[in-house]
Amino acid sequence: MILVTGGAGYIGSHACVALLSTGEDVVVFDNFCNSSPIALERVQKICGRPLTVVEGDVRDQAALEKVLTQYGCTSVMHFAGLKSVQDSVAQPLEYYDQNVIGSHRLLRAMQATGVRKIVFSSSATVYGTPQFLPYTEEHPLSAVNPYGRTKLMIEEMLRDQYASDTSWAVAILRYFNPVGAHESGLIGEDPKGVPNNLVPFVAQVAIGRRERLNIWGNDYETPDGTGVRDYIHVMDLAAGHVSALKVLDQPQCFSVNLGTGAGSSVLEVVRAFETASGRAIPFDIKPRRAGDIDAYYAATDYASKLLGWSATRSLQTMCADHWRWQSSNPNGYA
Ligand code: NAD
Ligand code: UFG
């Protein structure tokens, strides 16, 4: 049995599909602060198998210990946390509380119940400003905002815990830019309020919930002047988690990139989404967004060597699947 914290969220729900599809049993632990229980009903529909849902907060160590024991969990996938860079600047204490203290309580609960296998959702944000590209796992680590600092602190906590007890098995997965949805169109990303991220915003323009996209800058050091990122299909990302869990059969601690290795510009994403949706995406070029960098993308050699995993889906597939989800659920899970 695998405990999936934050399993109702965007990435967690897709990971649950991947886990259930490979025959694993899953108990989701989520407080639904940024998700809907409907996502988990849909996951079960896709897989034709049940999962267990427990509502709770990862900062509640006693509740976590109870779940780990009651369901005989042998490993944990830890997605629960807050993820908005902007909000983390406005409310840093909330981010340290939910992300850092939440992860600490989870590790305590695991220690108390003898569960020593964990896959953690980290982010390419821990590489900070690129000193070279692609980012390899050896790239120096730094954080440029409170959200990034929480990820870095949790990574350090995990490395320290493994150093103190090498019977632990720890996978730190550094995601690049997850987009897309399960090919059924039943589950997908459902951001609350105005989306900060590019693809959810573009999808809401395509469906008519927003009039125009703002492109934050076209004077970057990139081929067409707009920002370049490594977009990865969320189902490829989910498959990467299943591969990581297999490798954790042996005690070890590793950090690995989950990306495609290829960068796409904002304009390339807009064009791919127009093709996928058959809708025009009107946009305005606006000044740069604070804190954004020109370009970054992943080195992928270590992931293929260590996990035997690599991303397979194209930008076109990411947009087509994202659009299937958005067009069949114009208002998300609401
Ligand atoms: P999400 O907000 O959709 O999912 C997070 C889930 O955790 C939600 O279901 C939320 O209700 C739950 N949650 C939050 N705080 C909780 C708490 N204190 N107790 C219990 N449940 C709680 O986000 P996501 O995009 O699925 O991201 C999952 C993880 O991956 C996060 O840790 C995020 O930082 C990380 N990550 C995401 C991205 C991205 O672009 N989406 C990139 C890199 C890393
Ligand atoms: N962009 C726009 N208009 C928008 C939204 C985004 O032009 O409305 C541009 C950005 O300037 C950037 C690109 O689209 O060039 C991608 O932006 P996102 O906000 O989708 O993604 P980021 O790479 O900025 O940030 C993501 C996550 C962060 C994480 C970071 C590093 O949202 O949480 O990747 O992993 F920290």
CATH level 1 name of the domain at 2-180 and 232-261 and 297-306 = Alpha Beta
Give the beta-strand count: 13
- What small molecules does the structure contain? nicotinamide-adenine-dinucleotide, uridine-5'-diphosphate-4-deoxy-4-fluoro-alpha-D-galactose
What kind of sheet is the major sheet?
7 strands, parallel
* Residue windows where pLDDT falls under 50 for at least 5 positions: none
CATH topology category name of the domain at 2-180 and 232-261 and 297-306: Rossmann fold
User: Superfamily at the CATH H level of the domain at 2-180 and 232-261 and 297-306?
Assistant: NAD(P)-binding Rossmann-like Domain
Q: Strand fraction band?
A: 15-25%
User: What is the chain-wise order of helices and strands?
Assistant: EHEHEHEHHEHEEHEEEHEEHEHH
Protein described:
Helix 1 packs across helix 8 (234-247) and helix 3 packs parallel to helix 5 (92-113). This protein has helices at 10-21, 37-47, 61-70, 85-90, 92-113, 146-164, 198-206, 234-247, 266-277, 301-307, 315-328, and strands at residues 2-5, 26-30, 52-55, 75-78, 117-123, 169-175, 177-179, 213-216, 228-229, 231-233, 252-258, 264-265, 283-286. Strands 3-2-1-4-5-6-11 form a 7-stranded parallel sheet, sandwiched between helices. A two-stranded parallel ribbon has the order 7-10. Strands 8-13 form a two-stranded parallel ribbon. It is globular. The chain is an alpha/beta fold. It has a domain at 2-180 and 232-261 and 297-306: Rossmann fold (3-Layer(aba) Sandwich). Strand 5, helix 6 (146-164) and strand 6 (169-175) form a beta-alpha-beta unit. The protein binds nicotinamide-adenine-dinucleotide (NAD) and uridine-5'-diphosphate-4-deoxy-4-fluoro-alpha-D-galactose (UFG). Nicotinamide-adenine-dinucleotide binds at residues 6, 8-12, 30-35, 57-59, 79-83, 98, 102, 121, 123, 175, 177-178.
